[in-house]
Amino acid sequence: MIWLLPVGILAISSAAILIRLTPADPLAITFWRLAFATLIVLLMSAWRGEEFPRGRFLAYSALSGVLLAVHFLSWIPSLFYTTVAASTTLVNIHPVLMLLFSQRIGERIGGATAVGVLVAVAGSVLITLSPGGLLGNLLALVGAFAFAGYLALGRVVRAHVSTLGYVAVAYGVAAAVSLAVAASLRANLANYDLYVFFMFLLIASIPMMLGHTVFNYLLGRYRAVTIAASTLGEPVGATLLAIPVLGEVPRGSIFLNAPGVGHVEVPLQAVGIVVTIIGIAIVIREEIKRGA
User: Fold this and answer.
1) Which of 83, 85, 118, 211 is deepest in the core (most CB within 10 A)?
2) What's the DSSP call for residue 110?
3) What are 265's strand-pairing partners?
4) Beta-carbon count within 10 A of 262 CB
5) Residue 257 half-sphere exposure, CB side, CA atoms within 13 Å?
6) What number is the average pLDDT over the span 53-59?
7) Could you give the CA distance from residue 259 to residue 73 in angstroms, rounded to a whole number?
């Protein structure tokens, strides 16, 4: 099932672009993304006769939903205060935190995995050299911390609970929390045309169901740190998609003095993409070796 990782990476890479193309309040995008995803999951759960988590796993699932809400409530608004490249890079720093969380949830982290994560993080940072707005960057970092906790709890629950049972609770709680926040801030949740609601549904279907739900399924089979490192493909995909769709061309190069050649311009964003992919490949290769 490791082949599902690229599917999830491609799906979440579309999130930032779809969000920026949706003319709605960021809090409304957050709520409807989660609400539609919850509805889809509940329908699938009813059709398959899935059971919901109970006892402490229900509590863990609910807490995971709170962290997911914090992740989206901070990251989605960040996309409107900074560039796609900056936002998706900063929100994906969470694999470093996962190296610490993994020890707490009983996962063994080898040297190759740690190196792969650090290489991938370094590559994702290189993608963005043009600093975005301070508020947007800070919001993206809050989203990174929340996402790390969300993945760690998801790994614990998924060892005992089915994917649909877990995400039904997590997505539902996240939707409820985002609704409460949006209502308290009097955000516009409903005054939109059919195009905007279509975009809400699209965001729930592609990056949420094919991205987050696929990753939650894989959490039952692979280490949380592997899933976390794989999501570092998001800034790569989102940055590349933002060029033709939004016209956001990442800038930032350095000039090296090469002997016999003179000054050579090195495009660090391109280097960052390559480095990130190498880091992800190292982690996935290690995961495949563990399962062999």
Assistant:
1) 85
2) -
3) 255
4) 9
5) 0
6) 94
7) 50
